[in-house]
Amino acid sequence: MTLRGTGWALACVALLMSPLAMAAGKCERLVATGSPDAPPYSWQDPNDPKHLIGANVDLLRQVAGELGVKVEVLSAGRRDQALEEVRSGRMDLLLDTPMQVEQLTALDYIHPPLQLNEYLVWTRHDATLAFEGPADLAQYQGSLSERARLTPAFTAFAKAQLKLVPAQNLTQAFQKLVLGQVDYVLAGRYSGMAMAQSLGMSNDLIARGLPVDRPGLYLALSHNSACNDSWLRGQLAKKLTELPISGASEAVLQRNVERWKAQLQVPSDAPKH
Question: Is the fold of 20-116+216-266 the same as that of 119-213?
């Protein structure tokens, strides 16, 4: 083979082995899952229960679409079941998971997070609770859903400094608040808004002040996924970095808050026979 011919052959091999070519050949479709009960970030589609909808689903579809990768977002059941599906490699990716050190042996967390879930102090509308920062909560009785996913640092602070009554879920926590059994509830900005709306408590409850915690909700790729390679991880990280700058995250979040509210209103607005 001539030198020129050898150079052409090497160029062809280099092209075929480029990260883009390898990625395209290796992963054309991602199967993702997440929480079935975390509006507006992700929840089960009432019209198609096998799939999830929500802000994180929309953002993942947008990002993957820009990379030329198809995405299917399935409901895998409870959060722990979704985690196990991804850990095992039966599904490729979690789309709304907090950072968990113990999962680093099974998952690659993509930085930055897809969303920051802002936890606020919710009180009754007429409460006289004085609150300027987390330390002020020590003198009051609060509640927190067992499903809440806070940062390790705030979890440690709460355990040491705060008086928190556990609740099975946010519904129970808000009911305790309205009944005067606790002074405040720690809940996400948008999950709290959605829950207050669904329980008919929007006029009774109010979110106070600045966030006390802002845990990230990450995309996490399974170590056992055939799609998990350096090209995909790098491209996802690049796209996630661009999202806040473009304003896309906030727009998608607000759209899904309205989407969730509209679903809650369907039963009462439905025609009566």
Answer: yes
